[in-house]
């Protein structure tokens, strides 16, 4: 039975963002394939529909709530929530899973040679850097030098950790062959988790040093807070650690289990299809599950902000006790 469509609004998401399930539903909609294959015509029509709704020029009963929610979903996938700029197609949320299928397949399935290890870690962090930048909190002014340093740092961390840990496991002769094999399968995850958190923090370091915009209960930006920036980046870093866990840890063990029960195809093409399918399912399940850990629009109590935010009042003279901020993805 189809779920009931709630009355449309621009003031709140369709699903309750105070619950994990509501956030998971929200992000699952945004990463769906239907969100990826949207044409420029659909994007323009959706933006026009939302603009008309904002301006109050939609004739009553001319469109349904379902159509308005769908238009809002498309706009949220395509346009940055702060700048309103159209995001590059490969850095939109619906592109994350399709783009990561070959990348994660390479990290998990390619023979662990020195070239393969460095190449796939570099490709992964290059894409992560672009995705993090496109979906950043856009309160501050971009610094090209800082962005380049952040990218280089993330690549060095991932490649260094991957190669270093791989060599360490390889030379851990005091461990049995089974233990070394199990540990070697965790190396891509550890490297990607460390670099992913570092990549996000380095790429968005200005949110920590200069702060991010905090919004009061009337939707008015009241200044920039370093404390809010710290909370936001901490949540982003935790997400980047959680995200690769099921993607890079589960497939090797799932595939090993399939081999033990003779469920893997015998021919090479069939094995490749099965391996990539397992990786794909893990990515598709992991992405919305990880980014739903925290709301995209976070909240922070006034008492946890700098002193200048703790006695602010709104237009009605009421003390603002809580602020919101755009965490980004």
TrEMBL record:
Single annotated GO MF: monoatomic ion transmembrane transporter activity
GO biological process: amino acid transport; mitochondrial transmembrane transport
Residue ranges of the TM segments: 237-255, 276-297
Coiled-coil features, chain-numbered ranges: none
Domain of life of the source: Eukaryota
Compartments where found: Mitochondrion membrane
Membrane association type: Multi-pass membrane protein
Keyword Transferase in annotation: no
The UniProt record lists the keyword Mitochondrion: yes
Keyword terms, alphabetized: Amino-acid transport, Membrane, Mitochondrion, Transmembrane, Transmembrane helix, Transport
Family, similarity comment: Belongs to the sideroflexin family.
Protein's recorded name: Mitochondrial Tricarboxylate Carrier (MTC) Family
């Amino acid at each position: 039975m189809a779920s009931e469509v709630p009355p449309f609004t621009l003031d709140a998401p369709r699903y309750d963002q105070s619950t994990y399930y509501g956030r998971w539903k929200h992000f699952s909609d945004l990463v769906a394939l239907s969100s990826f294959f949207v044409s420029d015509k659909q994007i323009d029509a959706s933006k026009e529909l939302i603009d008309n709704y904002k301006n109050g020029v939609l004739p009553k009963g001319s469109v349904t709530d379902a159509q308005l929610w769908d238009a809002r979903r498309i706009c949220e996938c395509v346009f940055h929530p702060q700048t309103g700029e159209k995001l590059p197609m490969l850095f939109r949320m619906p592109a994350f899973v399709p783009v990561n299928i070959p990348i994660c397949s390479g990290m998990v399935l390619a023979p662990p040679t020195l070239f393969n290890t460095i190449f796939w870690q570099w490709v992964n962090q290059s894409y992560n850097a672009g995705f993090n930048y496109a979906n950043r909190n856009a309160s501050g002014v971009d610094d090209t030098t800082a962005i380049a340093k952040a990218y280089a740092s993330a690549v060095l961390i991932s490649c260094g950790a991957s190669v270093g840990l791989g060599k360490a496991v390889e030379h851990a002769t005091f461990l049995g062959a089974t233990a070394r094999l199990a540990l070697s399968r965790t190396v891509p995850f550890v490297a990607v988790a460390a670099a992913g958190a570092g990549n996000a923090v380095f790429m968005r370091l200005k949110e920590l040093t200069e702060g991010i915009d905090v919004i009061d209960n009337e939707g008015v930006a009241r200044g920039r807070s370093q404390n809010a920036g710290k909370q936001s980046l901490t949540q982003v870093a935790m997400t980047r650690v959680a995200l690769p866990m099921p993607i890079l840890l589960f497939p090797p063990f799932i595939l090993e289990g399939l081999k033990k029960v003779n469920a893997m195809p015998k021919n090479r093409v069939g094995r490749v299809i099965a391996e990539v399918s397992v990786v794909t399912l893990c990515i598709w399940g992991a992405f919305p599950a990880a980014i739903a850990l925290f709301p995209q629009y976070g909240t922070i109590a006034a008492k946890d902000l700098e002193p200048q935010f703790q006695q602010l009042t709104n237009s009605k003279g009421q003390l603002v006790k809580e602020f919101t901020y755009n965490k980004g993805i």
